[in-house]
Amino acid sequence: MRDAFTLFVRLIVYHMDQDDPKKCTAKRLLKFGEVKFVKTVWSLPRGCILLNPFSKIVLSPDDCKYSNNGLAALDCSWAEAEKSFDTIKSKVQGRILPFLVPSNPVNYGKPGKLSTAEAFAGALFILGEEAQAKKILSSFNWGEEFFKINRELLEGYSKSKNQDEVLDFQEKYLKGIKNRKGSTEEI
Fold first, then answer.
1. H/E stretch holding 131
2. Cβ(114)–Cβ(97) under 8 Å?
3. How far apart are CA 166 and CA 97, in angstroms?
4. Which residues pair with 95 in a beta bridge?
5. Nearest to 131 by CA among 34, 50, 26
6. pLDDT digits (tens, 9 = 90+) for 28-40
7. Tens-place pLDDT, residues 56-71
8. Which residues, listed in sequence order, are joined to residue 50 by a DSSP beta bridge?
9. Buried b vs exposed e over 154-166: b needs ≥16 C-beta within 10 Å?
10. Main-chain phi, psi angles of 174, to 5 degrees
11. Is 26 exposed, middle or buried, given 0-12, 13-18 or 19+ CB atoms closer than 10 A?
């Protein structure tokens, strides 16, 4: 948690203009002044956290040390995502988000298929910035639903110390879901 004199985490979007502009959550965040768009990979701040669904390192509260450099997202089509992320190399701290469920109308209930706004909100919450996380989703009519369906996960992740504890919490949570369902079907 930051003190009263510290600004919010700076949010940066490398926008690739691949999605339907009417459904683009990054553009809506830009409209409300919540993010800054950059036009090239090289415009991302050195050492910032890049939310990357292909990273091998899971975001944890321990990554707070990098959040002073900003939190970045690559806004692209899911169909082009893997190819797009391959263009970004070692300048940033690539992190994958742990298991979260989207509430946006396009991918509702499809684990991992978060919108840019949901990814930022989840990351901010994990990094101890709950107020900023809630603020950026407040302009979406489905924003509060994201926190409702992910409450237990977000609280567990944010109370973890490091990647190992986040992964341990995630594993226990997912096993609990399987046990409640009484089956071995995949989630």
1. helix 130-137
2. yes
3. 10
4. 51
5. 34
6. 999 999 999 998 7
7. 999 999 999 999 999 9
8. 72, 94
9. bebbbebeebebb
10. -65, -35
11. buried
